[in-house]
Amino acid sequence: MMTLQQLCEQLPDYAVDIKLNLSSVLSDQSGLNEKQIIGIALASSYTINAKLLIQALLADYSQKIDENMIRAAKAAASIMAMNNVYYRFVHLTSDKEFQTMPAKLRMNIIANSGVEKVDFEMYALAVSAINGCGLCIDSHVKALEKAGISKQAIQHVIRIAAVINSVQAVIKIAND
């Protein structure tokens, strides 16, 4: 199994900033704990189907990752794939009647993810940022702020998602 260091060594020279940013966002806690950072990185990686990144994260952090964290990261990627499409539509359509209609979509995993509620909110925020759903982003930011999470920590969630997305973009470009 490839480590993050090995993965970074395989990235082309034009991605030097991406390599440095990956190291930075995974080590700079900015109000987040290590498990939260790993979970956010995993949820982001599952969202974009970044198989090499997932393998490297699992290899590097195997002692800190448990089945609940993996399940929750996959759950965030899965449930937000649905929610981000639905709520992006509700947000973007000019017909505001859709905002008053019940979604009628099951979302029980959000309350029963297997990790702390605040951690799952962070995972969901990262996924929503990658998927570009403004309504979901606002909802998760409000939930995190209500839970006492600082703006700096919330920004760091997005920095992790952005860098994970960028690493996967470089991998795809390099393999084309």
Quick summary:
The protein has eight helices and no strands. The protein has helices spanning 4-10, 16-27, 34-47, 51-60, 67-92, 117-131, 134-146, 151-175.
Present the secondary structure layout.
Blueprint: H1 4-10, H2 16-27, H3 34-47, H4 51-60, H5 67-92, H6 117-131, H7 134-146, H8 151-175
How does this model look, in words?
This protein is mainly alpha-helical. Helix content is 69%, strand content 0%. The protein has 8 helices and no strands. It has helices at 4-10, 16-27, 34-47, 51-60, 67-92, 117-131, 134-146, 151-175. Helix 1 runs antiparallel to helix 4 (51-60).
Which CATH architecture is right? Up-down Bundle
* CATH C-level label: Mainly Alpha
How many domains, in number, for the residues?
1
Structural class by sheet pairing and helices: mainly alpha
Helix content: 55-70%
Instruction: Give the biggest sheet.
Output: none
Mean pLDDT: 95
Residue ranges: pLDDT <50 for 5 or more in a row?
none
The number of strands is 0
CATH topology: the name is: AhpD-like
Q: Please work out how many helical segments DSSP would assign.
A: 8
Q: What is the molecular shape? A: globular
What's the Cα radius of gyration? 16 Å
Spatial gap, N to C terminus: 22 Å
Secondary-structure element pattern, one letter each: HHHHHHHH
Approximately how much beta-strand content do the residues carry?
A: under 5%
Oligomer: single chain
Q: Say which CATH homologous superfamily is assigned.
A: AhpD-like
